[in-house]
Write a structure and sequence with these properties.
Layout (H helix, E strand, L loop, with lengths): L17 E5 H15 L15 H9 L4 E4 L2 H8 L5 E4 L7 H11 L4 E6 L2 H12 L7 E8 L11 H12 L3 E9 L8 H24 L7 E3 L5 H4 L6 E2 L9 H6 L9 E9 L5 E4 L15 E3 L6 E5 L4 E4 L11 E6 L2 H5 L4 E6 L2 E7 L10
Helix pairs in contact: 4-5
């Protein structure tokens, strides 16, 4: 019997650094998503966090058949593993316009859609459709900027004009609105709720304006994990959380109001003991997302460890308990940001029932699958 949930039989044979996915916790997180949403029909989970066919298939078994993706490879992976309705939450540019319509033509049993915030991009999509073998229209949703200032068009008159252009473009169909509020990472739930409600007021106003001009709004895809429970309270939305499937240390600290469980663990080993209070671990930039300042991981069995250096293959930490550790010892950690961490790993080791049961290829970490 292992003392802690993150220690499992068989881990001694896992080469480090490694990503270990705990299926019982993934299942608990999926069930919590369903509880918050009130059922599978409202969910369009983002697959960027896990990138795994097995999780898409499990979601489909639970009735979750819509998916949101960041790349065409993710879209292809989702479509071939049980998703029936796939949104590329990205504006296709360059060869991307051709590739999304080719993907839709290749898998006619799946409904595909994408985003646009630019008239020129809409025209390119229309031309790509005309040159493709896609039988029906491609749904195009308008990407709205609700405050993040990363992508999207402001809700307003220009968005109405863009909807009219999409609706009038050969091969395209206006598919609705998409609004991601990634800037609303506010810890206090009351403040987050207030900010979320304010951010989406222009979206509801735009919906009314479109309907008033005779343009139906088939769907509104809204939010990410931080505002998922808030937006779930409004009927008629498709909800697109992603991180909560695996959860991570960053969201765990910022959003204590949510009941999701860390389900993806990094397994590392002590590879050197350079000083009496230092441990060098094989958990470098290639194994854990390093796009943000430390801490980039939270150690489950070295809670007082402080990172002092992070390099390509090494993470050096200081801890008064270094003397208790030997070279070769296993250390477990939760990544601060799990989504880009998963993308660094070619495979995930699967833990179920307190033991390692197999390996899954992280299929959609690739930029390109079959085409």
């Amino acid at each position: 019997m292992h003392a802690s949930w993150f220690q499992v039989a068989g881990e001694a044979e896992i080469p480090s650094p490694a990503l270990v996915v705990h299926l019982d916790r993934v299942e608990a997180n999926l069930r919590e998503m369903l509880r918050i949403a009130g059922g599978p029909a409202r969910l369009r989970p983002h697959v960027k966090t896990h990138k795994l066919p097995q999780i898409v298939r499990r979601q489909a078994e639970l009735g979750i058949t819509k998916a949101k993706c960041a790349t065409i490879a993710e879209a292809e992976m989702a479509a071939t593993n049980g998703a029936e309705d796939v949104l590329l939450a990205y504006q296709p540019v360059g060869p991307g316009a051709r590739r999304i319509v080719e993907l839709a033509a290749r898998y006619p049993g799946c409904r595909f859609s994408c985003l646009a915030d630019d008239a020129g991009a809409v025209r390119v999509l229309s031309a790509a459709h005309a040159a493709s073998a896609m039988a029906g229209p491609l749904d195009v949703l308008i990407d709205l900027d609700v405050g993040q200032r990363r992508s999207g068009i402001a809700p307003g008159a220009a968005a109405v004009d863009l909807a009219k252009l999409i609706a009038a473009s050969a091969g395209l169909r206006f598919g609705g609105l998409h609004a991601y509020d990634g800037h609303l990472g506010i810890t206090d739930l009351a403040e987050r709720t207030q900010a979320c409600e304010a951010a989406f007021v222009p979206v509801w106003e735009l919906e009314r304006a479109l309907v008033a001009t005779g343009i139906a709004v088939p769907r509104i895809v809204a939010g990410g994990t931080p505002t998922f429970p808030i937006l779930a309270g409004r009927a008629g939305l498709e909800l697109s959380p992603g991180t909560c499937v695996f959860w991570d240390a960053g969201y765990g600290k910022k959003f204590p109001d949510m009941a999701f469980l860390p389900a993806a663990v990094l397994l590392a080993r002590v590879v050197s003991k350079p000083t009496a209070d230092r441990l060098c671990l094989d958990l470098g930039h290639k194994a854990v997302a390093s796009e943000m300042p430390a801490p980039r991981v939270v150690f489950l069995d070295l809670p007082d460890a402080v990172a002092v250096a992070h390099n390509e293959e090494h993470l050096v930490v200081e801890t008064p308990h270094a003397v208790e550790r030997s070279v070769g010892d296993i250390v477990h950690a939760i990544p601060w940001h799990v989504c880009p961490t998963v993308a660094l790993h070619q495979e995930a080791w699967v833990a179920d029932g307190g033991k390692i049961t197999g390996r899954w290829q992280v299929t959609a970490r690739a930029r390109r699958l079959e085409f």
